[in-house]
Amino acid sequence: MSLRHMVIALGFVLAPQAALALDPPWGQEKRLRDRMVLESTRVCTDGKGHYTVVVPHSPETEGQLFYGDGKTFVEVPAVSTYSETQADFFEPRFFNPKANDNFRGVDYRVISRLVLSEDGKTCTLSCGDRSLPQQPLAADKVKELVRKSTFATSPMKFQPYKLLRDDKGTYYLVERGIGADNKSFRIFTGQRGQVKPQKMLNVVTDSQGEIFSTQGGDLRLVVDREEAFWVVKSKRQKLRAVPVGDNLPFIYNELGVYTGARLGTPCDDV
Question: What is the pTM of this model?
C-alpha cells in the first residue's frame, strides 16, 4: 500500500504539502477496517518531543514507519515488512560492525531498528550499535496523536550512486534520484568534508557508459572498461572508483554532502 493509501486508512488524505483531516461518508465496513488499523498502530517517544509511529503489516496495509515531532511526520522507507514488535530502517550515519553485511542482499551494518515488547510496555531504538530506551504511548494517546497529525513522504530524494577520487584526494560523488526520480542526477566534488555541488548541464547514459556534464567539467564513467575520468577542456584526470556500499558511513558523515541534513529517521535527533 502506498503512503497515500496508508494515510487515508488512518483517517487522512494526503495533500501536496500535508495530510488534512477528513471525515468522508464511509460505509460501516470501511470504518471498521480503519479502526482496526488505528488500534494496531503503536507509537514510541524519547520523552523530548520526538515520536515514531509504527503501523504493522496487515491485510489493510503493507506496514509503515513515520517519524516526527507529534504534529508533523515523515515516512521512513521500509527495509522489510514491519511487524507489531520491530521496524528496520536504513540509517547510514550509524554503523554496527557486528551486524550481518549481507543478509538476503541487505547490509545490516547500516540498518537501525525500533523494537517494541509484546506487552507494549517498552520500546528500544537502536541506531547502529547504540541502544536508546523509548517510552510507549498509551492506546488513547496514540489515537489522539495520529488523528491530529499530518504525514508526508520521506525527505530523502537522492541517494549515493557513484563515488570516485583522484590521486590528490579530491572526491567526486554522483547522486541519483530515488523512485520515480531515478533519472535525476547530482554531482558534488571537493576534498573530504568540503565537497560542493556542481551545476548540472547534461546527462548521457547508455550501454557504453555515462557522461555527467557540469559547469566545472565532464565526469565520464566508462562502464565497459570500469574506468572513470574527470575531463576539463580535453584534459583527462583518471579517477579511482570507491565502492559506495562499503563507504556509506564515510559518505554520510565525513564527505560533507549530508552534514547537518535530516534524513527523516528516528536517529535524526540522537
Answer: 0.82
